[in-house]
Amino acid sequence: MSDILYIVVPCYNEQEVLPETSKRLYDKMTALHKQQKIDEKSRILFVNDGSKDATWRLIEELCAKSPLYAGVNLSRNRGHQNALLAGIATAAPHADMIVSMDADLQDDINAMDEMIAAYQAGNDVVYGVRSSRQKDSFFKRNSAQLFYRLMKLLGAEIVYNHADYRLLSKRAAEALLSFDEVNLFLRGIVPMVGFQSTTVTYERGERFAGKSKYPLGKMVTFALEGITSLSVKPIRMITVGGLLVCVVSLLMLIKAFADYFSGNVEPGWTSVIISIWVLGGLQLFAIGIIGEYIGKTYMETKERPKFIIESVLLQEDNEVE
Ligand code: UDP
Ligand code: MG
């Protein structure tokens, strides 16, 4: 018996692309099944993220047509990441492996063969990585690059040029679901799950039809969400900044006194300039210290799993000779 694959596809107002996407995924699934790479219980699971168009009606029609299709309907729009998680949560009890991909066919469906092969070779997480961003607009390409650099600088572990096209094994999906945080940034959380992982590169295509559901505003929010939900380093920067100002204030102190004793200053200048620098530095430093504690509290409130066990070797019944 081969493994059960669930393809999870979040859809928000995707009526233009759904007919084509569903057809191509159907063909892919039947081909994979013929090659005995996946079990016949495998499914294509569409998650309707509170679409305002005919998306859910189309999904219902597909499900009525073939048991290969499945659907989840969210009560309202909750955003790409939450829709994806809803799909993974629905699929995890039934699937051995879960592939998540966008509805717009930008992710190359054929990369799935390689992903499944990597899974069968023992990988629990397989990241789809874009080989190039030639098809993205100049702006999207550069803003994305800036984002990945910034994330790295701030110490968040994310896979470069990997979006949300990935394969998760059942246990990786279950481990992912044990992260209870509300501000969810899957790209940052999946590497935290651990297990053996690898990457598969693919050429990212253009959106098949319809418009991007990530206008600039949403993209900036998404990036900020990613940074603030994964890293408390910005707080550390305040602390360091405060310390630096304190050091500068010491230098200013020396300079102010030197000026004072050399006598060529306006009366009052020395005390004013010293107060400004010393107080400024101390205040910034104090805010940083408070921030450090807030950062700690923030991380604690996420109640992330402290560890995820991959396997245990323990013989309980056998007596030791
Ligand atoms: N999406 C979603 N909910 C949203 C926004 C987007 O489920 O609120 C889905 C969308 O239907 C698509 C995927 O997330 O399947 C990626 O969106 P899109 O292709 O518009 O993003 P882009 O490729 O432009 O970054
Ligand atoms: Mg897209």
What does this structure look like?
This protein is an alpha/beta fold. It has 2 domains: about 5-215 and about 305-315, Alpha-Beta Complex (Spore Coat Polysaccharide Biosynthesis Protein SpsA, Chain A); about 235-300. About 50% of the residues lie in helices and about 15% in strands. The protein contains 10 helices and 7 strands. It has helices at about 20-35, 55-65, 80-90, 110-120, 140-155, 170-175, 185-195, 215-230, 235-260, 270-300, and strands at about 5-10, 45-50, 70-75, 95-100, 125-130, 160-170, 195-200. Helix 9 (about 235-260) runs antiparallel to helix 10. The longest helix is centred in the last third of the chain and has 33 residues, at about 270-300. The protein is elongated. Bound molecules: uridine-5'-diphosphate and magnesium ion. Magnesium ion binds next to loops.
